[in-house]
Request: fold
Amino acid sequence: MSTKIAVVTGGNRGIGFEACRQLASHEMRVVLASRDEAKGRAAAEQLRGEGLAVIAHPLDVVDPGSIAAIAAFLRQEFGQVDVLVNNAGIYLDQSGDSILSAQVDTVRQTMETNVYGPLQLCQAIVPLMKEHHYGRIVNVSSGAGQLHDMSAGHPAYRMSKTALNALTRVLAAELDGTNILVNSVCPGWVKTDMGGANAPRTPAQGADTITWLATLPEGGPSGGFFRDRQPIEW
Reply:
């Protein structure tokens, strides 16, 4: 069996970086995609120093040209993509803005990165997965996007993660029976640049369920929302 190819967006730090490490530890070749090309190269070099098969490639998820470029690179270089982890995300309203005073530009920017980016990456990469009748797509979401116990504050971030979960459901339904499994994950509150120093979880703990979903066997769950390898409410 050929080596599986995984792509992780926002892979140069935090949960994305740890997901690259864990997937490469599962004998995958990992493409660490990051907006900052220099930081991406440095991160990939660090993981290669650990004996892992990781290469860097620039990717700005809000730039359709950048998405087209990485898709073309993947097709030309490997001829396949087996795993896509949509991890890149932004959290611009960390101060807990009221939805009544939220800036529409902040909402728009957040949706561009957290929803439209993953959507366009799926549009670019799923055709390659279909050619090989295999794919695992993991959308890194958040409990902040759960309608089940939706609360106030951080409206742009919350709405973007709810929309990302909708993307998971729609795509999973469309790909039913193709052996391309699509799931959302809440990594929990993780000690990263975004999560802050007070977060209780390590990046390794945050990435664990991502790796589990990225390595699901045939017939595994699709269209689900998971935390700690267990389904959670939408």
Summary: The chain has a mean pLDDT of 94. The chain has one domain: 5-231. The chain is about 40% helix and 15% strand. The longest strand covers residues 29-34.
